[in-house]
Amino acid sequence: xxxxxxxxxxxRLPLLASILRRMRxxxxxxxxxxxxxxxxxxxxxxxxxxxxxxxxxxxGLVSNAALIMGVAGAGQSxxxxxxxxxxxxxxxxxxxxAGEYVSxxxxxxxxxxxxxxxAHEIGSDVDAERRELxxxxxxxxxxxxxxxxxxxxxxxxxEMALETHAREELGLDPRxxxxxxxxxxxxxxxxxxxxxxVPLVPFAIGSGGAAVTAAAxxxxxxLAGVGAGMSILTGRSPYVSGLRMTAIGGSAALxxxxxxxxxxxxxxx
Length: 269
Fold this sequence. Notes:
Structural class: mainly alpha
Strand content: under 5%
Shape: elongated
Order of helices and strands: HHHHHHHHHH
Number of helices: 10
């Protein structure tokens, strides 16, 4: 028997909702608990531009430092190192910006599609949606009688009904913005460039072992600063965050430098 439009629409909702949740990150189960929360203030973490900026500066630092150290370790001339660093900066910045734009755009489109499908369901069969909402409340531990009364009251207002169904059934909030794809792409591009410039500057004004040492020190200090700064958003210890960022980024640069030393390929430039 061929499925009707309602059943086909309904079948799409869980799949689309799960896809969007995966794209937006892991969902943690939080339970009420006592104890101090620390002195950190809550920061607005819903901004796509803020997230893109953090990832951008971190990726710019780590990827270009690793690239530059790899080329420097291979014994290349200062000209080749600068050329590789500039190429890495531009390629990485455009790649990050394009990736952020596409990711944010797809998230927004999936989000809008889910809300549209849910609105269609409410407009097509309000009684079925009322029963479904009551069942959702019952699964949360509310008595059937009270769950039915709550669902009936909610369904009186179409706007509230859509918001409640989206939140309870799909885990989405129609009022929660996903941010601007252009803002995310722009902030990612700018911050990647700034991060990628850090290990490149010493080779632009110097050369040889002094430039390698200066680039390594600047990169490690900046990584520590970025990691410590991220603790404002995460609420973690700035020392732990800074050390973790420094260890990860420093390890990547050290490994590529070692690989370059092993290869030690001369280009003749």
